[in-house]
Specification:
Layout (H helix, E strand, L loop, with lengths): L6 H4 L2 H6 L8 H7 L6 H13 L8 H12 L3 H21 L1 H23 L7 E9 L2 E12 L2 E6 L3 E4 H18 L4 H31 L2 E5 L4 E5 L4 H15 L6 H12 L2 H21 L1
Antiparallel strand pairs: 1-2, 2-3, 2-4, 5-6
Length: 295
């Protein structure tokens, strides 16, 4: 006695799944039997497209997102090596260009400080104050003169010159800041914004540093000796003068005022967003935790 063929049995297990019917085997068993020739990344990409179309994938949304991130993001070591390679190349190229741009930078800084002194410091007769800035041998030189009338005599006094090495105190820090921004794994628009903002903020910081140094020098009182026809400086302590001296010690005498810490702080604040700080901390924790486990 023969048996009639059931049409349903002619349908494959995969077709039964697509029609919403119950196959003879479970979904997990079917998936394990029918191995796809596609790579894991292609399968995950197809799963993401299925999610965007409102359909239900074979894996959950959380598992899919985790695997996609794992497939797309390179390792921490590779990102770190890439960062330092780009940083080294950028710094070498920009530092090598110093001889080409030194005169241009010197002229800009000289003109800026001279316009400031003419507007805010230089005074007319009889109490003449003169501040002159010029660029000489990679140094920004600020000369301050004071003329005072004493017993119908015009006495002059030259303050000690302020010399700031532009190569080490200005250009190196600016190059480090720009190179750090270029090496960062962010979009080109964010890099451009960070570079422009960083250059402006660093120049304001540099002008603040020099202003503190000038204020420290001018805080000293000039004592004119009419008989000997000379003058000398005397420091008279006060809260304001002591405060200016402390600022001068921090920003001009310590390393923090003119080297890499300033560039690193500006780089972090301008390049990365607040929500990215936690991700950076997690990336740094992974190598440390793996080293502890290996020990």
């Amino acid at each position: 006695m023969g048996f009639k063929k059931n049409k349903k049995s002619e349908l494959s297990q995969e077709e039964l799944l697509t029609q919403g019917k119950t196959p003879l085997v479970s979904r997990g068993t079917l998936d394990s039997r029918n191995e796809s020739p596609l790579s894991q990344e292609e399968l995950l990409t197809q799963g993401k497209e299925t999610l965007s179309q409102g359909k239900t994938p074979l894996v959950s949304r959380g598992t899919l997102d985790t695997k996609l991130k794992h497939c797309k993001k390179p390792g921490f070591a590779r990102e770190l090596i890439k960062f330092f390679v780009v940083l080294s190349i950028s710094m070498f190229a920009l530092l090598s260009a110093y001889s080409l741009v030194s005169a241009f930078i010197g002229n800009i800084l000289t003109d800026s400080f001279n316009s400031y002194s003419k507007k805010y410091y230089n005074t007319p007769f009889p109490n003449l104050n003169r501040m002159n800035t010029h660029f000489n041998n990679d140094s920004l030189v600020i000369a301050i003169q004071k003329y005072v009338v004493r017993e119908k005599k015009l006495l002059d006094f030259n303050y000690p010159e302020i010399k700031v090495n532009i190569r080490t105190n200005y250009y190196f820090t600016l190059v480090l800041l720009i190179s750090l921004i270029i090496s960062s794994p962010v979009t080109f628009r964010r890099k451009l914004f960070a570079c422009i903002s960083g250059i402006i903020l660093f120049n304001l910081f540099f002008a603040f540093k020099i202003s503190i140094e000038i204020a420290t020098l001018l805080n000293q009182t000039i004592v004119f000796d009419v008989i000997k026809n000379n003058a000398y400086l005397v420091y008279e302590s006060s809260f304001y003068k002591d405060f200016i001296n402390v600022l001068n010690s921090i920003f001009n005498e310590l390393v923090i005022g003119s080297r890499f810490p300033v560039a690193i702080v500006l780089w972090f604040l301008l390049t990365f967003r607040a929500e990215e700080y936690s991700e950076i901390a997690k990336m740094l924790e992974k190598p440390i935790s793996s080293e502890k486990k290996s020990k």
